[in-house]
Amino acid sequence: xxxxxxxxxxxxxxxxxxxxxxxxxxxxxxxxxxxxxxxxxxxxxxxxxxxxxxxxxxxxxxxxxxxxxxxxxxxxxxxxxxxxxxxxxxxxxxxxxxxxxxxxxxxxxxxxxxxxxxxxxxxxxxxxxxxxxxxxxxxxxxxx
Length: 144
Prior knowledge:
By secondary structure, the chain is mainly α. The chain has four helices and two strands; from the N terminus they run H-H-H-E-E-H. It has a two-stranded antiparallel sheet with strand order 1-2. A hairpin with a 5-residue loop joins strand 1 and strand 2 (120-124). It starts with 16 loop residues before the first helix and ends with a helix.
């Protein structure tokens, strides 16, 4: 008569996001069998299906399967106020509160940008838009 001795209790495994992503990518390859991928990687089949469902619903931290909109910056130009024309063809005077105010020396403002992956980026308002785009791309991994 044979007996099996269990010396320790199995604990829940914690899978890093990189491993989950690798296993899910393998399971999503054309012609791949999810059950075979799960067995090959030592993952319970139902766990792999759960990961795939959560990733499709954007509920798996650090992993998303839905395409994210590309980051875009719109150029802004501040110019003089447009003047309206009165009935007799002469330019109308601007309203009293629309007169330009003298530029005062002030501290530059800080803008906080929250990325799609939850990270936040604080930059001065005078940052070059191209440099900001490169920072967002690097920190968000192309998801924004």
